[in-house]
């Protein structure tokens, strides 16, 4: 073992007098020489009456010329890319060479000699006060810049610089372990190296790998004389090579003061600094615990082995804190470290991206208590709320990594965390996020694109923050221009949570005594063609629409005229019932004849959900019968945005009346508009209108096939990616299966499918447009099992 060159430092054997003669001949320098500590080379600081002149380095005889060339050219490249970085360039010989070959008179071995620029400052290891949060942050910032500069650097010897301290080559250190005294430490080191072989090294290769300095410990970093927190120079590129960028971070983070008790305080600050100049991914952050543990294990092994076996006069690096902090880090554990890192770097709480990832302790009970304490009693979708920590496409994931198929969430219509939309939000937020008082191209561009395929009278946008605000403002405009205060809605409707839209949402108040119903609102009976009073009637459209005459008359008796008829053309709150034929057009015409406006609430049916871009088009509603289109929820794929589309004529009349200064501070901000624009990109690029019809039709066909086996299924209906599933206890009587529906919801949750109910006995299924046939098949299989389970 002791004859293995990587273990023995094998320092060059050369007399100082020869070095002085060589330096004078090659560089014309003379002066005093002070030896510096080095791993494999001989190094001196040369100074004279003019001050420090540079650092002479005699390379190890085993050092390939290409490795030295790598170090020289890397520094040159860094300074080309980022000239303000404090790294020491090589001073060429009198002949203009970056290094020269020499032969030792003492040993006869050949070595390379080079002169490196002097950098002024104090090394961190000689500056006790430097071991502070500010320094760790600043060295992280600098290392991020260095790695940014090195991203574009290539050298054929990048993988040839072999040395013991490289965490990527840690398995060679196993041979040292049997020589260490038996006890807790060798057992721990053995386990860490075993895990490195099985997992850690493979995961490190999946992070960003490039040429890195990977030696920014406290002996290779200098701070300024006047400020111990500011980095004056990054020294010694002798250990650089191709590795994970995490190697850069953990080497800097292992610089502990002797009184440090927190093994990750430096790591957190270094990572925060690095992240400001070279942003980390969450996979990289989640691997930092393992990377630091491995680095400390490498350092502990080398130092403890060399303390026993090093033949040199002086041990190069002592185990000052490596083993002590390794034990503390292991005792702290991956979960605590990862949670603290994620919080410090503003990543969401940890959640494994697959079932192979580590699972942390369940904090469900604590989370529920804190939510109720600070947010009040919140209505959850299930008796036991799910702790969702991430989502992608059509799936949502709980804290333990369990995947749930999302057939309930009606907000991220393009799919959860769609990468194009996420990217558009991030890019715009980086450039500008402000309100619409400023001239910003994205706002006008988005409004133009959103309205380009609509009829001429729907040509103007008003941006707000949500569907509720959009509906609220549409009603205000209708009331202002009509001079009326009455409103028409359909039973069980929901249109928002503002004071005004709550009145237009009988779902919110119809359970109250009639005396508490808003007196200016009148409800129309639901135009249900499956289980309504005119189901199966060929004149159902006109008969249901006739209820609008009754409602208008009822309003008149209370001294009101209708300002508007507001309708969700998908009928989501009504169990996704299918209105007959011309029903919407008939009610719209009656409303307009009475002096009111028609508001098409497209919060849920719009943007392709029903197989057409606008929901009202899917129902056969004529565009000329629509005065306002309102949107929210999915218009920016869950980013806060609400839109009202109306005619420029109506807009001018409104602004010229009682609202000359219509303005929403956050409505239509640049980031929201960028998200909205990206949604339109996705609809076009992924051909989602066609997909909505194809997958939706396949979904309904599979449900109808399932109905042949399960008599509980009474009706399957819907358009595009909206599906209503009505359960009945008797198909002839069509009596709602209320309790059975609740049982199905619970059974489906057991099978990892999230669904929601509409009116009693009805499931409203609103999968995102990201669904494909695989998701449909998963749903059908789970529903088949669930229905079988409750028989």
TrEMBL record:
The keyword Transferase applies. InterPro entries: Aminoglycoside_PTrfase, Aminotrans_3, Aminotrans_3_PPA_site, Kinase-like_dom_sf, PyrdxlP-dep_Trfase, PyrdxlP-dep_Trfase_major, PyrdxlP-dep_Trfase_small. Keywords: Aminotransferase, Pyridoxal phosphate, Transferase. GO terms for molecular function: pyridoxal phosphate binding; transaminase activity. Its cofactor is pyridoxal 5'-phosphate. Residues 42-273 form the Aminoglycoside phosphotransferase domain. It holds the Pfam family Aminotran_3. Belongs to the class-III pyridoxal-phosphate-dependent aminotransferase family. PANTHER family: ALANINE--GLYOXYLATE AMINOTRANSFERASE 2-LIKE, PTHR45688. This is 4-aminobutyrate aminotransferase. The lineage of its organism: Bacteria, Pseudomonadati, Pseudomonadota, Gammaproteobacteria, Cellvibrionales.
